Every structure is written in C-alpha cells, then in structure tokens.
Amino acid sequence: MCMAMMIAAPCFAQTWGSNPELNAFANYYVKSLNEFMHRFNADEIPAFIQEEGGENMRQRCIIALFDLEQVPDGKSEAAQRILKFDSVVCANKTMLHITDPGLYAEARCLFKYKKKDIELNLVLVYENIRDDYYRWAIAGVNGLVEAGIIDTTAYGYINPVQHELHFSELSQAFPHMNGYFLRSRHVDQLSFLAGLAESGTLQLVGCQTVTYWFTQVPGYVFSVSLHPRLKGNAGWLIHDLLEVKEEDKSRIIDYLIAGI
C-alpha cells in the first residue's frame, strides 16, 4: 500500500510521521510469529519507527503489523477500527507470548483419503506438560463434514424391537457408524480423525498454510497470517480483526476447533 495515502489522513499522519524509508521492504517484513509478538509488545521496534522517535512507539509498532493493503486510506472505517484496537491494547497493556492461553494455530492441511485429495483444518494449541516443558498439541479438526467423510444427514436404522433379539442388527452399523449415533450427540470430529488415521484410511500429505488466532486482547479476536509480497508491509501480519464481546469468544473458538 502506498504510504502517501496513509500520511494524508491526520490520525495516521501523527502515527506514521514522514520518514521516506516507510516504503522500504526490509523495514516492514515480519519474518516469524515470534518476531510478530516481539514487535506487538514493542520489544523489537523496527528501525523506521526508532528513527521517527517521539512518543507512542508501541502504537506505531502495532499499526505496522496490520495488512495495510486492506486499508483504503487513513480516514476509512478500516483505519478507524485499527486505531480503536490500538488504543485498547495500549490502555490494557496487553502483551502476547507463545505460552499464553488463548492462542490457536489453524493449519490447513492436505490429506489423501481413498486416493482423493482433501483439505482439513487442524487446530493446535500450545500446551504445558510439566514445569517448563511445552508442546504444540492438536485440539480440534474441522472439514470432515464438508469433505463428505462425515455425513450428518445419514440415518441408520436399528429396528425398535431389537432389544428382544439381543441387538443382532448392530452389525449393520459397522464400519460406517455416524448415521447410527444418537441424534442429540454431535460427532466428535477429532476422535473420528484419530480413527481414520489409525486405520490408515487418511494420510497427511503436508501443511499448506497456517493462521494464528489470538483472543487475549479484551473485546477482540484477531488472526495473523503470512503475506509474502515484495513491497509494502509484508510477512506475518494481522489479517482479520473481530470486535466481539468477551462472552462470545468461546463461540468463535468452538467454531474454529470443531466447526460447530
């Protein structure tokens, strides 16, 4: 995005200043998630912001972490939403760390299923096992319904008098069981995935893209994804910014993890 558009707006002019190096690719590129968090926390302040000097360096660091190609100009609604988010982060002194609860990694992966290519989203969280020992752990999966592996409309039939016949018709439920489950029970996609992997029916080809979701900022959920362009701000940047009530965050997380 052309920084001249940003500088034209008073609110962003005060934030960005007039450093001629603002368009330099090296100044903007955020190389990793760890670097993203260091810049967000103002532990690592880019050279162009240091050269500008003055106050509000952290606010400027955070604005530089947005995908500014989504911002038409400094007076746009998108720009105002960013500034509001920026003020909330700084007022609450919110910091981001890899070990924080509320960080989710959404890995879009390619699989082979019965010789067909399918895409599933695996959701991972950073888990403390003991003392200072952490790991990434798979917390959920979604996409099995969309891929047609789980059929939520399936309706298996076991005769209502089967209790008199020692449930001999249970054999009909195997191996495709999801149509025989109690209708009030949602199919646990993570357990379903484990069964498919264990049987060898589903094989991982590789991870295609990763999106990180942060829920730590009061009143907000936002995503960070890779923008590998060769000009403007680039690298790991804030893409989605959702203003939500705290009580609604669990609903968003449930949808992310299980697609429900």
Which features characterize this protein?
260 residues, alpha+beta, 6-stranded antiparallel sheet, 28% helix, elongated
How far the N terminus sits from the C terminus, by CA atoms, comes to: 36 Å
Radius of gyration: 24 Å
> Helix segment count?
9
* Stretches with pLDDT under 50, minimum 5 residues: 1-23
Strand order of the largest sheet: 3-2-1-4-5-6
Describe this structure in words.
By secondary structure, this protein is α+β, with helices and mostly antiparallel strands. It has a domain at 3-99 and 215-258. It is 28% helix and 25% strand. It has nine helices and six strands; from the N terminus they run αααααααβββαβββα. The protein has helices spanning 3-7, 10-16, 25-28, 33-40, 47-52, 57-63, 77-92, 189-199, 249-258, and strands at residues 103-113, 116-130, 133-142, 202-214, 220-227, 235-243. A six-stranded antiparallel beta sheet has the order 3-2-1-4-5-6. A hairpin with a 2-residue loop joins strand 2 (116-130) and strand 3 (133-142). It is elongated, with a radius of gyration of 24 Å. It starts with a helix and ends with a helix. Residues 1-23 have low confidence and may be disordered.
